[in-house]
Amino acid sequence: xxxxxxxxxxxxxxxxxxxxxxxxxxxxxxxxxxxxxxxxxxxxxxxxxxxxxxxxxxxxxxxxxxxxxxxxxxxxxxxxxxxxxxxxxxxxxxxxxxxxxxxxxxxxxxxxxxxxxxxxxxxxxxxxxxxxxxxxxxxxxxxxxxxxxxxxxxxxxxxxxxxxx
Length: 165
Ligand code: MMA
Description:
By secondary structure, the chain is mostly beta strands. The protein has one helix and 13 strands, in the order αβββββββββββββ. Methyl alpha-D-mannopyranoside binds at residues 30-31, 100, 142-145, 147.
């Protein structure tokens, strides 16, 4: 009996479509680790601030729902800000790195793309493994620049999970 219950539970679990995947980590081994895992509870990614100097992607700040994450990275260079359209999601990030992240091209499911930084170093191309999944949050390492970055994909969230909207 117990065996049957166990078997059924396993079969049901195995039949669920998989949705989460991870791309990365791209970059070097320096810096201090960060993760926006908890930030995804504030909602889907709605805007990005990318700080860039003449060589590197220096810093990142991401808006989840209505709430900006803390800034990760350094303070040199200039910040560029992009807002996604309502319902628009990031579905690909390509770029370049050497010891640090040098370039990121953010691509959305509305066919828009936003390039930041310089054409130098080794290429990466981060895309979700499963259909209809999008960028939910990022993780990586940073110090005075963004040393490394990884991309976490899953089904789109439509709203804030923990703020009762
Ligand atoms: C700091 C330190 C390093 C990191 C670099 C680049 C200047 O050194 O945090 O570990 O690799 O910044 O982010």
